[in-house]
Amino acid sequence: MIKLLVVCSVVLSTGYAATPNADDKYQKWADPGRVLYQTATDFDPGDMQVLLSAMQQVSLDSGMCIKFQRYDNRADAGKDYIYISNKLSGGKAMSTCYTFPGRSVEQQGRGQYMVLFSSRTAPGAASQTATVPGACLDTVRDAMKYLFQALGFRSEYGRTDRVNYLDFLAADPNSLVAKSMAEWTPFKIYQPGEASFYNLFDPLSITMVDGKKWAKNPMNPVFTPKSNVWIGGKPNLSQQDCQALAMYGCDTIKCQNPYSLLGGQGILVTPLSTPMDANGVCATGQQILLGSVMASGLTVPKGPQAGIPFNPQQSAVNQSISGSGIVQGAFISGEPSIPSGPALPGPMMMSLPVHERAGLNSPYAFSVAGSNPYNFQIIPDPVDPSKANIIINSAARSFTNAQITVQAANINAPQQTPQVGQALVSINLNCGPLFMSYPPGSSSAASRLNFPSTPIRIVCDGNMLQTPMIIGTFTAQDPDSDTGVTYYISMSNKFQISSVGVLVLVEAPASGLGLIPVNINAMDANGAVTTLHLSIQFSCA
Fold this sequence. Notes:
By secondary structure, the protein is mostly beta strands. 7% of the residues lie in helices and 28% in strands. It has four helices and 28 strands. The chain has helices at residues 45-61, 140-150, 179-182, 239-244, and strands at 26-27, 35-39, 68-70, 82-85, 98-99, 103-104, 112-115, 166-168, 223-225, 267-271, 276-280, 287-297, 317-320, 348-351, 364-369, 377-380, 387-393, 399-410, 420-431, 434-437, 456-460, 469-473, 475-477, 486-490, 495-497, 502-505, 513-523, 529-540. A five-stranded mixed sheet has the order 3-2-4-7-5. A four-stranded antiparallel sheet has the order 10-12-17-16, with no helix packed on it. Helix 1 packs across helix 2. It is elongated, with a radius of gyration of 27 Å.
């Protein structure tokens, strides 16, 4: 029989690093070499593979001191264990994953719940592809966070000294989280008696999350790291996480820093964002830039440890390398508040934050290591030889949590001492709307993906233009949904566009002869924007 315990926060343990819990209702597990668990009979096989990978990685990172083993109903009867399901007792669904912060002293061999699920298996998930904010089995790193907390630790971002390392973008950080997560107030600060803060804040801890993790709007993160801080993003315990396991008698000499000298091989590969979230026009022959990785040698500056380089002083800026153009700068008053995203096709480039790095100046050879089911390509950056861009050609539909391993090798290193590094990258792509048709008067060469190369000409008799005047209908389609798109105008206040794409001139140009630029924007439900750039010429005798 499994007893559903009261949901409380925190535990106590006497640790040497990380953030141990301080509530004596939660203690260490009796045998770190046999942390027992049992899964629900209907636990998803795919989720199980992620969970087992996470358990194995925790064991490896702890020097095989921590081991998770299946509970045996006979041999282990009466022993404390973790019962893992995607729901609570009685089938009650939760909108977020959850674990008790350590071994509950109240369970007395009856098991304690740990709720884990992926976006695909979340209770009541509306889609098999949409990302669920509270899911934790989409990546190995997320699963490791909950396993580590179950050993007796709390999240770094709940510490009282977090303001010295993170800039929160609202007085109440929880006001920025997704609706499904709001009731859990994930960014509340721990109270005295809940957690111990005698160790230094560790932004590389496995318990840390990206500031966009639970944000209701990914373009408006809950927090950003300060300029001298990096947030961990690898599926590994940080060195301080590992050292904290000394409370279980683990040998801290075996603790490695996964953010320096990756695997001891001399090259550190770091994604510039994790996961990589991209918008793009998905169509045959179109390249979409998904994100970038950096390779560095030997060390990364600003401290003995380093994670994902990130400069919060610079926001990501979209630019085009093909001349197709995109929307940049402020939108005119009255337009919807949306993130700036790639407009017309590309290849589209996103210039990501600049950061410092140290080490080798020699170029690197980048490649995809292992399986590559999405046919991602790695191309060297034309300016920075230590940077590579990840692109996809001819994406058909959106996808979430696609994973590849990017490898970098120093091509100038001696053959007998090759320098190689790898990084696991998670990628989400949202396909933006496609313009399917234009009104008469657009260039005859205009296609679904290329904006007209010549102006639309409007000829009128006399010096008077009758307004309102219908220019024509523009039609865009979201390849991922039949719910339609939202249209709006930028660059000109002389036009309006209806909900079905009818463009109307509402104010005549000042003179009889005028050339007016206007952008027709189509936005999908996820905020991806495709922009059609037009010039409309009025010729009045």
